[in-house]
């Protein structure tokens, strides 16, 4: 496990395949070897060592994570009817990056940006960071 892998962003937990209102924002952080997710109300969805996370990235760029025996479908952006991230989630994200260097490297491709708002790049970044942190993701 590489505990110095750091990433944080607001992603969307697709709690329902069909109901866009149930595709909710979560603040997901990877820091010091731990993966944490908090919902809009600040409640912890999960907090586990990265090495206990399994998952895969689908062809449609959904990151399917298994944490503590439960599966979470994570996507890079919500639907048009999904709730927006809360002010607390945005504030916590800003505070997270206030004393850390943001990740560097490639950005989203042109087509991903135009047609998908960079969502595919977003979930690929999470898959890659989790793999570097010791999670069993592919």
From TrEMBL:
Superkingdom of source: Bacteria
Record-given protein name: Uncharacterized protein
Organism: Micromonospora robiginosa
